[in-house]
Automatic annotation (TrEMBL):
It is found in: Endoplasmic reticulum membrane. InterPro entries: Exostosin, GT64_dom, Nucleotide-diphossugar_trans. Belongs to the glycosyltransferase 47 family. Gene3D superfamilies: Spore Coat Polysaccharide Biosynthesis Protein SpsA, Chain A (3.90.550.10). Residues 10-162 form the Glycosyl transferase domain. Keywords: Disulfide bond, Membrane, Transferase. One of its GO terms (cellular component) is endoplasmic reticulum membrane. This is Glycosyl transferase 64 domain-containing protein. It is a single-pass type II membrane protein. One of its GO terms (molecular function) is glycosyltransferase activity.
Length: 177
């Protein structure tokens, strides 16, 4: 993890206005329910990077400290109240905020698709309500912002010094490399 964070920091130093980290997630429009969905399935696309680095949220991100100020003092109170209500979605709110300000997507580092916490007894994402709450958060934040600032990207910053292993069924994402 230390090598990974060193690489993340190097990428962030070149992209200080973005959320830089891992793992990536994306949002998608649900035609059946006419609303936004939060998705953590393997995909070439991402529009969010998880910011949590607790035993239950195995992810990590670098952001400029100014965004933490904006999150606390500029982000609409309704968004922060929803995060407090669910005890969830702070990473989605931060990605909304940064993408709204910069009009740029986050940068994912590393080739990993998932991160497991072997010493953790229970993960937040194992709760039945976790994904439903995250769907609701994206739709609620969209209402508050008046639009969805999240931007999709396929860009990933990887060190050429590390061997990239892409799942066989996902290699189509990178067929032109």
């Amino acid at each position: 993890m230390r090598v990974c964070r060193l690489g993340m920091r190097r990428v962030w130093r070149e992209q200080r206005d973005r959320v830089v980290g891992f793992p990536g997630r994306f949002h998608a429009w649900d035609l059946n329910h006419q609303g936004w969905l939060y998705n953590s399935n393997y995909s070439c696309e991402l529009s969010m990077v998880l910011t949590g680095d607790t035993p239950h949220e195995c992810g990590a991100a670098f952001i400029h400290k100014y965004y933490t100020y904006l999150y606390s003092y500029w982000l609409p109170q309704a968004v922060r109240d929803k995060v407090d209500e669910y005890m969830n979605c702070e990473d989605i709110a931060m990605n909304f905020l940064v993408s709204h300000i910069t009009r740029k997507p986050p940068v994912k580092v590393t080739s990993r698709w998932t991160f497991r916490c072997p010493g953790c007894p229970v993960s937040l994402s194992e709760d039945d309500t976790h994904f439903q709450e995250r769907h609701k958060c994206i739709n609620f934040f969209t209402q508050v912002f008046g639009y969805t600032p999240l931007l999709n990207t396929q860009f990933r910053a990887d060190s050429i010094l590390f061997k990239t292993r892409i799942p066989h069924d996902k290699q189509k994402c990178f067929k032109f490399i």
